[in-house]
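Justification of resources, computational component.

The compute hours requested in this renewal are based largely on the per-chain cost of generating structure records like the one below. Each record pairs the submitted sequence with a full C-alpha coordinate output. That output is archived, and it is also reused by downstream analysis tasks.
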Amino acid sequence: MLAWQKFGNGETPETSGLKGDKLVGKYYVAFDKEYKQQITALTSKGISEEEAKKQAPIIIEAQKMLLDWEAGDEKVVQLWKTMNQWVYDGFAQTYKNLGVDFDSYYYESNTYLLGKEVVQMGLEMGVFEKDPDGSVWIDLTDDGLDRKIVLRSDGTAVYMTQDIGTAIQRVKDFPDVGGMVYTVGNEQDYHFKVLFLILKKLGFDWSENLFHLSYGMVDLPSGKMKSREGTVVDADDLIDDMTQTAKELSEELGKLEEYSEEEKERLYKIIGLGALKYYILKVDPKKRILFNPEESVDFAGNTGPFIQYTYARIQSILRKANFDWSTTIAQLELHEKEKELLKQIELYPEVIQNAAQQHSPALIANYTYDLVKEYNSFYQSVSILGEENTTKKIFRVQLSKKVSDTIKSAFSLLGIEVPERM
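The structure output for this chain reads:
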Protein backbone atom coordinates (compact mmCIF):
# COMPACT_ATOMS: atom_id res chain seq x y z
CA MET A 1 0.00 0.00 0.00
CA LEU A 2 2.79 2.39 0.95
CA ALA A 3 4.75 1.68 -2.25
CA TRP A 4 1.60 2.25 -4.33
CA GLN A 5 1.06 5.61 -2.56
CA LYS A 6 4.67 6.62 -3.20
CA PHE A 7 5.24 5.32 -6.72
CA GLY A 8 1.85 4.39 -8.18
CA ASN A 9 0.55 7.71 -9.56
CA GLY A 10 -3.01 6.43 -9.05
CA GLU A 11 -2.47 3.35 -11.24
CA THR A 12 -5.36 0.82 -11.23
CA PRO A 13 -5.96 -2.58 -12.88
CA GLU A 14 -8.15 -0.76 -15.44
CA THR A 15 -5.62 1.93 -16.34
CA SER A 16 -2.63 -0.45 -16.35
CA GLY A 17 -4.29 -3.42 -18.06
CA LEU A 18 -2.80 -5.66 -15.35
CA LYS A 19 -4.77 -8.21 -13.32
CA GLY A 20 -5.30 -6.81 -9.84
CA ASP A 21 -3.10 -9.34 -8.07
CA LYS A 22 -0.27 -8.66 -10.53
CA LEU A 23 -0.56 -4.92 -10.01
CA VAL A 24 -0.37 -5.22 -6.22
CA GLY A 25 2.50 -7.72 -6.57
CA LYS A 26 4.37 -5.11 -8.60
CA TYR A 27 4.27 -2.69 -5.64
CA TYR A 28 5.19 -5.45 -3.18
CA VAL A 29 8.41 -5.78 -5.20
CA ALA A 30 8.80 -1.99 -5.42
CA PHE A 31 8.66 -1.70 -1.62
CA ASP A 32 11.36 -4.33 -1.14
CA LYS A 33 13.61 -2.66 -3.72
CA GLU A 34 13.32 0.75 -2.03
CA TYR A 35 13.78 -0.79 1.44
CA LYS A 36 17.02 -2.51 0.38
CA GLN A 37 18.35 0.70 -1.18
CA GLN A 38 17.66 2.60 2.06
CA ILE A 39 19.39 -0.11 4.13
CA THR A 40 22.45 0.10 1.83
CA ALA A 41 22.50 3.91 2.17
CA LEU A 42 22.38 3.69 5.98
CA THR A 43 25.05 0.98 6.25
CA SER A 44 27.36 3.08 4.05
CA LYS A 45 27.18 5.71 6.83
CA GLY A 46 28.52 3.20 9.36
CA ILE A 47 25.21 1.99 10.82
CA SER A 48 25.00 -1.77 11.42
CA GLU A 49 22.78 -3.75 9.03
CA GLU A 50 20.52 -4.81 11.91
CA GLU A 51 19.96 -1.18 12.94
CA ALA A 52 19.62 -0.04 9.31
CA LYS A 53 16.75 -2.51 8.83
CA LYS A 54 14.95 -0.85 11.76
CA GLN A 55 15.82 2.76 10.87
CA ALA A 56 15.05 2.72 7.13
CA PRO A 57 12.40 5.46 6.67
CA ILE A 58 10.16 3.28 4.49
CA ILE A 59 9.87 0.50 7.12
CA ILE A 60 9.08 3.06 9.81
CA GLU A 61 6.34 4.47 7.56
CA ALA A 62 5.00 0.95 6.93
CA GLN A 63 4.90 0.23 10.68
CA LYS A 64 3.02 3.50 11.23
CA MET A 65 0.57 2.54 8.48
CA LEU A 66 -0.05 -0.83 10.16
CA LEU A 67 -0.81 0.90 13.47
CA ASP A 68 -3.15 3.32 11.66
CA TRP A 69 -4.87 0.37 9.98
CA GLU A 70 -5.35 -1.47 13.29
CA ALA A 71 -6.68 1.78 14.80
CA GLY A 72 -9.25 2.00 11.99
CA ASP A 73 -7.88 5.12 10.24
CA GLU A 74 -10.49 5.84 7.54
CA LYS A 75 -8.11 6.64 4.65
CA VAL A 76 -5.78 3.71 5.33
CA VAL A 77 -8.66 1.27 5.70
CA GLN A 78 -10.26 2.49 2.47
CA LEU A 79 -7.02 2.09 0.51
CA TRP A 80 -6.56 -1.37 2.06
CA LYS A 81 -10.08 -2.41 1.01
CA THR A 82 -9.51 -1.13 -2.54
CA MET A 83 -6.16 -2.87 -3.04
CA ASN A 84 -7.38 -6.06 -1.34
CA GLN A 85 -10.29 -6.20 -3.77
CA TRP A 86 -7.88 -5.87 -6.70
CA VAL A 87 -6.02 -8.92 -5.39
CA TYR A 88 -9.18 -10.96 -4.72
CA ASP A 89 -10.55 -10.21 -8.18
CA GLY A 90 -7.27 -11.30 -9.74
CA PHE A 91 -7.14 -14.49 -7.66
CA ALA A 92 -10.77 -15.30 -8.55
CA GLN A 93 -9.91 -15.18 -12.24
CA THR A 94 -6.95 -17.55 -11.79
CA TYR A 95 -8.90 -19.95 -9.57
CA LYS A 96 -11.66 -20.09 -12.16
CA ASN A 97 -9.11 -20.93 -14.86
CA LEU A 98 -7.73 -23.71 -12.66
CA GLY A 99 -11.17 -25.09 -11.80
CA VAL A 100 -10.68 -24.33 -8.09
CA ASP A 101 -13.38 -23.10 -5.72
CA PHE A 102 -13.80 -22.61 -1.97
CA ASP A 103 -16.72 -23.02 0.44
CA SER A 104 -15.56 -20.37 2.92
CA TYR A 105 -12.98 -17.62 3.16
CA TYR A 106 -11.28 -16.45 6.35
CA TYR A 107 -9.49 -13.13 6.28
CA GLU A 108 -6.61 -12.40 8.66
CA SER A 109 -7.97 -8.89 8.92
CA ASN A 110 -11.06 -10.30 10.67
CA THR A 111 -9.44 -13.00 12.79
CA TYR A 112 -6.45 -11.09 14.19
CA LEU A 113 -8.74 -9.39 16.74
CA LEU A 114 -10.00 -12.76 17.94
CA GLY A 115 -6.38 -13.90 18.21
CA LYS A 116 -5.58 -10.88 20.38
CA GLU A 117 -8.48 -11.78 22.70
CA VAL A 118 -7.06 -15.29 23.05
CA VAL A 119 -3.63 -13.87 23.89
CA GLN A 120 -5.25 -11.98 26.77
CA MET A 121 -6.97 -15.18 27.90
CA GLY A 122 -3.63 -17.04 27.67
CA LEU A 123 -1.95 -14.39 29.82
CA GLU A 124 -4.60 -14.87 32.52
CA MET A 125 -4.14 -18.67 32.31
CA GLY A 126 -0.35 -18.33 32.64
CA VAL A 127 0.24 -19.88 29.21
CA PHE A 128 1.76 -16.64 27.87
CA GLU A 129 4.14 -14.20 29.53
CA LYS A 130 4.66 -10.47 29.04
CA ASP A 131 8.14 -9.01 28.62
CA PRO A 132 9.12 -5.61 30.08
CA ASP A 133 8.69 -3.96 26.65
CA GLY A 134 5.03 -5.09 26.56
CA SER A 135 5.48 -7.88 23.98
CA VAL A 136 3.80 -11.21 24.76
CA TRP A 137 5.58 -14.57 24.37
CA ILE A 138 5.17 -18.27 25.02
CA ASP A 139 8.10 -20.30 26.31
CA LEU A 140 8.18 -23.72 24.64
CA THR A 141 11.78 -24.63 25.51
CA ASP A 142 10.62 -27.49 27.78
CA ASP A 143 8.87 -28.95 24.72
CA GLY A 144 12.04 -28.88 22.64
CA LEU A 145 11.07 -25.67 20.81
CA ASP A 146 11.91 -22.03 21.63
CA ARG A 147 10.26 -18.84 22.86
CA LYS A 148 7.69 -17.56 20.39
CA ILE A 149 6.26 -14.06 20.18
CA VAL A 150 2.44 -13.82 19.92
CA LEU A 151 2.01 -10.06 20.25
CA ARG A 152 4.46 -7.25 19.42
CA SER A 153 5.37 -4.59 21.97
CA ASP A 154 3.26 -2.03 20.07
CA GLY A 155 0.23 -4.36 20.43
CA THR A 156 0.07 -5.46 16.79
CA ALA A 157 -0.56 -9.09 15.87
CA VAL A 158 1.88 -11.53 14.26
CA TYR A 159 1.04 -14.45 11.94
CA MET A 160 0.81 -16.80 14.94
CA THR A 161 -1.82 -14.59 16.59
CA GLN A 162 -3.92 -14.61 13.44
CA ASP A 163 -3.61 -18.38 12.99
CA ILE A 164 -4.72 -18.99 16.58
CA GLY A 165 -7.78 -16.80 16.02
CA THR A 166 -8.62 -18.38 12.66
CA ALA A 167 -8.41 -21.95 14.01
CA ILE A 168 -10.80 -21.14 16.87
CA GLN A 169 -13.26 -19.36 14.56
CA ARG A 170 -13.32 -22.29 12.10
CA VAL A 171 -14.19 -24.75 14.86
CA LYS A 172 -16.98 -22.42 16.04
CA ASP A 173 -18.34 -22.18 12.49
CA PHE A 174 -18.04 -25.90 11.73
CA PRO A 175 -18.43 -27.72 15.09
CA ASP A 176 -19.10 -31.09 13.41
CA VAL A 177 -15.83 -31.14 11.46
CA GLY A 178 -13.53 -33.80 12.91
CA GLY A 179 -10.27 -31.99 12.21
CA MET A 180 -8.40 -29.55 10.00
CA VAL A 181 -5.73 -30.09 7.37
CA TYR A 182 -3.38 -27.15 6.75
CA THR A 183 -2.01 -27.44 3.21
CA VAL A 184 1.11 -25.29 3.44
CA GLY A 185 4.69 -25.68 2.21
CA ASN A 186 7.32 -27.42 4.33
CA GLU A 187 9.09 -24.13 5.01
CA GLN A 188 6.35 -23.60 7.62
CA ASP A 189 6.83 -26.94 9.46
CA TYR A 190 8.07 -25.23 12.62
CA HIS A 191 5.28 -22.64 12.60
CA PHE A 192 2.60 -25.33 12.67
CA LYS A 193 4.33 -27.35 15.40
CA VAL A 194 4.20 -24.20 17.53
CA LEU A 195 0.60 -23.35 16.55
CA PHE A 196 -0.76 -26.81 17.38
CA LEU A 197 1.13 -26.87 20.70
CA ILE A 198 -0.12 -23.42 21.71
CA LEU A 199 -3.74 -24.44 21.01
CA LYS A 200 -3.21 -27.59 23.08
CA LYS A 201 -1.78 -25.59 26.01
CA LEU A 202 -4.75 -23.22 25.78
CA GLY A 203 -6.97 -26.24 26.48
CA PHE A 204 -8.58 -26.84 23.08
CA ASP A 205 -9.15 -30.62 22.82
CA TRP A 206 -9.64 -30.45 19.05
CA SER A 207 -6.01 -29.42 18.65
CA GLU A 208 -5.25 -33.17 18.62
CA ASN A 209 -7.03 -33.37 15.24
CA LEU A 210 -4.99 -30.70 13.44
CA PHE A 211 -2.68 -31.84 10.65
CA HIS A 212 -0.11 -29.95 8.60
CA LEU A 213 0.00 -31.38 5.07
CA SER A 214 3.56 -30.24 4.53
CA TYR A 215 4.39 -30.26 0.84
CA GLY A 216 7.77 -29.96 -0.83
CA MET A 217 8.53 -26.96 -2.96
CA VAL A 218 8.05 -27.00 -6.72
CA ASP A 219 11.26 -25.93 -8.44
CA LEU A 220 11.55 -24.87 -12.04
CA PRO A 221 14.66 -25.00 -14.21
CA SER A 222 15.03 -21.26 -13.49
CA GLY A 223 15.52 -21.91 -9.74
CA LYS A 224 13.88 -20.88 -6.46
CA MET A 225 11.13 -18.27 -6.48
CA LYS A 226 11.09 -15.19 -4.23
CA SER A 227 7.93 -13.10 -4.26
CA ARG A 228 9.57 -10.09 -2.59
CA GLU A 229 12.12 -9.88 -5.38
CA GLY A 230 9.58 -10.56 -8.10
CA THR A 231 11.31 -13.76 -9.24
CA VAL A 232 8.07 -15.72 -9.27
CA VAL A 233 6.37 -17.95 -11.80
CA ASP A 234 3.00 -16.43 -12.51
CA ALA A 235 0.13 -18.97 -12.40
CA ASP A 236 -1.65 -17.33 -15.34
CA ASP A 237 1.51 -17.36 -17.47
CA LEU A 238 2.13 -21.00 -16.55
CA ILE A 239 -1.42 -21.99 -17.56
CA ASP A 240 -0.99 -20.15 -20.88
CA ASP A 241 2.40 -21.81 -21.45
CA MET A 242 1.01 -25.27 -20.73
CA THR A 243 -1.93 -24.68 -23.07
CA GLN A 244 0.47 -23.54 -25.81
CA THR A 245 2.70 -26.60 -25.27
CA ALA A 246 -0.36 -28.87 -25.52
CA LYS A 247 -1.36 -27.09 -28.73
CA GLU A 248 2.04 -27.59 -30.35
CA LEU A 249 2.16 -31.29 -29.45
CA SER A 250 -1.44 -31.90 -30.55
CA GLU A 251 -0.78 -30.24 -33.90
CA GLU A 252 2.30 -32.42 -34.37
CA LEU A 253 0.19 -35.54 -33.84
CA GLY A 254 -2.33 -34.15 -36.34
CA LYS A 255 -5.53 -35.85 -35.18
CA LEU A 256 -7.78 -32.81 -34.87
CA GLU A 257 -8.84 -32.26 -38.49
CA GLU A 258 -12.61 -32.36 -37.84
CA TYR A 259 -12.44 -30.07 -34.78
CA SER A 260 -13.66 -26.46 -34.86
CA GLU A 261 -11.21 -23.80 -33.63
CA GLU A 262 -13.27 -23.39 -30.46
CA GLU A 263 -13.16 -27.14 -29.78
CA LYS A 264 -9.42 -27.19 -30.35
CA GLU A 265 -8.79 -24.33 -27.89
CA ARG A 266 -10.98 -26.04 -25.28
CA LEU A 267 -9.08 -29.31 -25.77
CA TYR A 268 -5.65 -27.61 -25.54
CA LYS A 269 -6.67 -26.12 -22.19
CA ILE A 270 -7.96 -29.47 -20.84
CA ILE A 271 -4.71 -31.19 -21.89
CA GLY A 272 -2.46 -28.36 -20.65
CA LEU A 273 -4.13 -28.07 -17.24
CA GLY A 274 -4.32 -31.85 -16.93
CA ALA A 275 -0.59 -32.09 -17.62
CA LEU A 276 0.22 -29.39 -15.06
CA LYS A 277 -1.95 -30.79 -12.26
CA TYR A 278 -1.07 -34.44 -12.81
CA TYR A 279 2.69 -33.81 -12.98
CA ILE A 280 2.58 -32.18 -9.55
CA LEU A 281 0.00 -34.48 -7.94
CA LYS A 282 1.65 -37.75 -8.97
CA VAL A 283 4.57 -37.01 -6.63
CA ASP A 284 4.25 -37.60 -2.89
CA PRO A 285 3.32 -34.19 -1.39
CA LYS A 286 6.31 -34.17 0.96
CA LYS A 287 8.87 -34.50 -1.84
CA ARG A 288 10.46 -31.55 -3.59
CA ILE A 289 9.96 -31.68 -7.34
CA LEU A 290 11.42 -30.11 -10.45
CA PHE A 291 8.61 -29.18 -12.80
CA ASN A 292 9.40 -29.72 -16.47
CA PRO A 293 6.58 -28.34 -18.72
CA GLU A 294 7.63 -30.27 -21.87
CA GLU A 295 7.94 -33.57 -20.04
CA SER A 296 4.55 -33.11 -18.37
CA VAL A 297 2.71 -32.90 -21.72
CA ASP A 298 4.35 -36.01 -23.19
CA PHE A 299 1.65 -38.31 -24.63
CA ALA A 300 3.64 -41.37 -23.51
CA GLY A 301 4.67 -42.26 -19.99
CA ASN A 302 3.31 -41.32 -16.57
CA THR A 303 1.58 -38.07 -17.58
CA GLY A 304 -1.89 -36.56 -17.54
CA PRO A 305 -2.20 -36.43 -21.35
CA PHE A 306 -1.27 -40.14 -21.64
CA ILE A 307 -4.15 -41.03 -19.31
CA GLN A 308 -6.52 -38.55 -20.99
CA TYR A 309 -5.64 -40.08 -24.37
CA THR A 310 -6.52 -43.58 -23.16
CA TYR A 311 -9.85 -42.29 -21.82
CA ALA A 312 -10.61 -40.66 -25.19
CA ARG A 313 -9.64 -43.87 -27.01
CA ILE A 314 -12.17 -45.84 -24.91
CA GLN A 315 -14.87 -43.25 -25.70
CA SER A 316 -14.15 -43.85 -29.39
CA ILE A 317 -14.65 -47.61 -28.88
CA LEU A 318 -17.96 -47.00 -27.09
CA ARG A 319 -19.18 -44.72 -29.90
CA LYS A 320 -18.34 -47.40 -32.48
CA ALA A 321 -20.07 -50.16 -30.48
CA ASN A 322 -23.32 -49.85 -32.47
CA PHE A 323 -25.03 -52.85 -30.88
CA ASP A 324 -26.79 -53.54 -27.58
CA TRP A 325 -23.99 -54.15 -25.06
CA SER A 326 -26.09 -53.61 -21.94
CA THR A 327 -26.85 -57.34 -21.56
CA THR A 328 -25.83 -58.98 -18.28
CA ILE A 329 -23.15 -61.61 -18.80
CA ALA A 330 -23.94 -64.68 -16.69
CA GLN A 331 -20.94 -66.86 -17.43
CA LEU A 332 -17.70 -66.37 -19.33
CA GLU A 333 -14.22 -67.87 -19.48
CA LEU A 334 -11.97 -64.85 -18.87
CA HIS A 335 -8.75 -64.01 -20.70
CA GLU A 336 -5.76 -63.48 -18.39
CA LYS A 337 -5.61 -59.77 -19.37
CA GLU A 338 -9.28 -59.36 -18.44
CA LYS A 339 -8.61 -60.88 -15.01
CA GLU A 340 -5.70 -58.51 -14.41
CA LEU A 341 -7.82 -55.53 -15.43
CA LEU A 342 -10.68 -56.57 -13.13
CA LYS A 343 -8.26 -56.93 -10.22
CA GLN A 344 -6.96 -53.40 -10.87
CA ILE A 345 -10.49 -51.92 -10.98
CA GLU A 346 -11.35 -53.69 -7.71
CA LEU A 347 -8.50 -51.85 -5.93
CA TYR A 348 -9.98 -48.39 -6.57
CA PRO A 349 -12.11 -47.94 -3.39
CA GLU A 350 -9.20 -49.03 -1.20
CA VAL A 351 -6.86 -46.60 -2.99
CA ILE A 352 -9.26 -43.72 -2.26
CA GLN A 353 -9.34 -44.64 1.44
CA ASN A 354 -5.54 -44.88 1.62
CA ALA A 355 -5.12 -41.55 -0.19
CA ALA A 356 -7.47 -39.89 2.31
CA GLN A 357 -5.76 -41.42 5.34
CA GLN A 358 -2.29 -40.54 4.08
CA HIS A 359 -3.29 -37.13 2.70
CA SER A 360 -1.69 -38.12 -0.59
CA PRO A 361 -3.35 -37.48 -3.99
CA ALA A 362 -0.26 -39.19 -5.49
CA LEU A 363 -1.76 -42.58 -4.60
CA ILE A 364 -4.80 -41.88 -6.79
CA ALA A 365 -2.68 -40.41 -9.61
CA ASN A 366 -0.33 -43.39 -9.78
CA TYR A 367 -3.18 -45.90 -9.40
CA THR A 368 -4.82 -44.34 -12.47
CA TYR A 369 -1.59 -44.64 -14.43
CA ASP A 370 -1.31 -48.33 -13.46
CA LEU A 371 -4.93 -48.91 -14.51
CA VAL A 372 -4.30 -47.25 -17.88
CA LYS A 373 -1.14 -49.31 -18.44
CA GLU A 374 -3.14 -52.46 -17.66
CA TYR A 375 -5.89 -51.40 -20.05
CA ASN A 376 -3.44 -50.66 -22.86
CA SER A 377 -1.88 -54.10 -22.37
CA PHE A 378 -5.38 -55.62 -22.56
CA TYR A 379 -6.16 -53.51 -25.67
CA GLN A 380 -3.00 -54.79 -27.40
CA SER A 381 -3.64 -58.43 -26.43
CA VAL A 382 -7.29 -59.02 -27.32
CA SER A 383 -9.76 -57.95 -29.96
CA ILE A 384 -12.67 -55.83 -28.71
CA LEU A 385 -15.04 -54.73 -31.48
CA GLY A 386 -13.55 -57.27 -33.89
CA GLU A 387 -14.26 -60.21 -31.52
CA GLU A 388 -16.51 -62.78 -33.23
CA ASN A 389 -17.89 -64.24 -29.98
CA THR A 390 -20.79 -61.88 -29.13
CA THR A 391 -20.66 -62.57 -25.38
CA LYS A 392 -16.94 -61.81 -25.24
CA LYS A 393 -17.39 -58.68 -27.34
CA ILE A 394 -20.16 -57.36 -25.06
CA PHE A 395 -18.10 -58.08 -21.95
CA ARG A 396 -15.01 -56.32 -23.34
CA VAL A 397 -17.01 -53.22 -24.22
CA GLN A 398 -18.53 -53.24 -20.72
CA LEU A 399 -15.08 -53.68 -19.19
CA SER A 400 -13.74 -50.78 -21.28
CA LYS A 401 -16.64 -48.63 -20.08
CA LYS A 402 -15.86 -49.51 -16.46
CA VAL A 403 -12.22 -48.56 -16.94
CA SER A 404 -13.16 -45.20 -18.48
CA ASP A 405 -15.62 -44.51 -15.62
CA THR A 406 -12.86 -45.23 -13.11
CA ILE A 407 -10.39 -42.96 -14.94
CA LYS A 408 -12.96 -40.16 -15.01
CA SER A 409 -13.79 -40.61 -11.31
CA ALA A 410 -10.12 -40.71 -10.26
CA PHE A 411 -9.23 -37.65 -12.33
CA SER A 412 -12.24 -35.74 -10.96
CA LEU A 413 -10.80 -36.37 -7.44
CA LEU A 414 -7.58 -34.77 -8.70
CA GLY A 415 -9.46 -31.84 -10.26
CA ILE A 416 -8.56 -32.90 -13.80
CA GLU A 417 -10.95 -33.05 -16.75
CA VAL A 418 -11.00 -35.83 -19.34
CA PRO A 419 -11.85 -35.09 -23.01
CA GLU A 420 -14.33 -37.21 -24.93
CA ARG A 421 -12.13 -36.98 -28.04
CA MET A 422 -8.44 -36.38 -28.61
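Strands lie at 129-130, 136-139, 147-151, 180-185, 210-215, 218-219, 289-290. The longest strand covers residues 180-185.
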